Amino acid sequence: MTLYGVGLGPGEAELVTVRGKRVLESADVVYSPGRLSRSVATEYVPAERIGDLDFPMTRDEEKLRRAWKEAAAEVAPRAREGEVAFVTLGDPNVYSTFGHLRRTMAAFHEDIDVEIVPGVSAVTAFATVLGVEIPSGSSLALREAAGGHSPTGPDRMVLFKITDAPATHEGLVEAGYEVTYGRRLYMEQGETVVTDDPEEIEDRDYYTLAYAEKPGAGEPQATAKFAAEEQSPTATTDGGQIEGGEVAELERSESLLCGDDPPEGGEWR
Question: Cβ contacts of residue 229 below 8 Å, gap of 6+?
Fold first, then answer.
């Protein structure tokens, strides 16, 4: 008597978690809310065990509530008989349709146990694809940017649902942000695009996000100094800092003064 909300990750079947894979393989029926999530689920579930739930493309709240009540009425009897899964791209608790089903089940079918199986969210997956590091101590905000909206916030933001990239970009640049866009990251359907040019993704696509950062955001990380030190080693003496090859010469001189033996079979170099 369990309904599992299973996060499928960003869209690539191999990024489904081990736990998610096990639940999908053992569930009596797996419900999918759309074509993309279904295509990932079918990598682990035979097509005959997948059930489709249809939801209207509308902002009419009454129609949406009616659709979710019907979906819950479809799912509940199957969940009472065994184990049922509802799949969603990303994570079930992050910008997901599963929240609607969970609330509806709690309201009308409270005898059904609900368990969440987390998935890799686009919030984290984008960082790898875009080559972005979010270091410890960072302030990061999540914002929707549909319809050309240009939200502002802390020095670092992840923006979802970008449907008018040129308009959003203009506002972000005016606010002092540098922006990188990603479209259909890790998705096997459609073209994956990573760009800092909003004109490349001016056509509407729901699966478009962006990372916006103000130059100089955050404090430098301690290990960032390694690269600089490797390129130009320095040493501090009573007379100040010396650089480059002088460091090695200083080390040799100090070794001789301290009575250290040269390397076996040779001289100090």
Answer: none
CB-based burial label for 149 (10 Å; 0-12, 13-18, 19+): middle
Tell me if the pTM is above 0.90: no
How far the first Cα of the chain sits from its last, in Å, is: 75
In tens, the pLDDT along 129-164 reads: 888 888 888 888 999 999 999 998 889 999 998 999
CATH architecture for segment(s) 2-120: 3-Layer(aba) Sandwich (3.40)
d(CA 161, CA 168): 11
Weakest mean pLDDT among 18-22, 40-44, 128-132: 128-132
Domain coordinates of the chain in residue numbers?
Answer: 2-120, 123-213, 226-257
Residues 132 and 21: beta-carbon distance below 8 Å: no
Per residue, the 3-state secondary structure of the chain, as one string, reads: CEEEEEECECCCHHHCCHHHHHHHHHCCEEEECCHHHHHHHCCCCCHHHEEECCCCCCCCHHHHHHHHHHHHHHHHHHHHHCEEEEEECECCCCCCCHHHHHHHHHHHCCCCEEEEECCCCHHHHHHHHHCCCCCCCCCEEEEECHHHCCCCCCCEEEEECCCCHHHHHHHHHHCCCEEEEEECCCCCCCCCEEECCHHHHCCCCCCEEEEEECCCCCCCCHHHHHHHHHHCCEEEECCEEEECHHHHHHHHHHHHHCCCCCCCCCCCC
How many C-beta atoms lie closer than 10 Å to residue 233's C-beta? Answer: 14
Q: Going by CATH, does the domain composed of 123-213 fall within 3.10.290.10?
A: no
